[in-house]
Amino acid sequence: EVQLVESEGGLVQTGGSLRLSCAASGFAFADHAIGWFRQAPGKEREGVAVISSSGEKAYYLDSVKGRFTISRDNAKNTAYLQMFSLKPEDTGVYYCAVMDPLWPLNLNPGAYDHWGQGTQVTVSS
Q1: What pLDDT, in 10s, does the model give residues 101-112?
Q2: Which of 42, 58, 59, 108 is surrounded by the fewest CB atoms within 10 Å?
Q3: pLDDT (0 to 100) of residue 29
């Protein structure tokens, strides 16, 4: 079965950094784009970043551009989200997800058909 497992998040102070990983199995990882999403309490899930199957193209949510970097290592079937200059508004449950290959790269949750369990990231002020 398709499985996506996010690393443990954590608690970090404003201005700090955190790196998340997403370990994938059960499908051809190198053939699929991978996205990162987050959901704050009482809010809608929003797309944070997506990376193409080859790793050559990425898109970001405007509010994280310049602070977050998405990457992948296809040899390890793992995707990453490196976050720096964290702000309290970055707080939420972070999910990685597999994009349906019929869609162009995008950050619409509806374009993704498999999801990890989520991991909590809390940024304190």
Answers
A1: 888 999 999 999
A2: 42
A3: 97
Could you write out the three-class secondary structure of 6-66?
ECCCEEEECCCCEEEEEEEECCCHHHCCEEEEEECCCCCCEEEEEECCCCCCEEECHHHCC
Structure tokens at 102: 């019929």
Cα–Cα distance, 107 to 125 (Å, whole number): 28
Largest CA distance in the chain: 41
Share of the chain above pLDDT 90, in %: 97
User: pLDDT tens-digit profile of 65-97?
Assistant: 999 999 999 999 999 999 999 999 999 999 999
Alpha carbons 11 and 109: distance in angstroms, whole number = 25
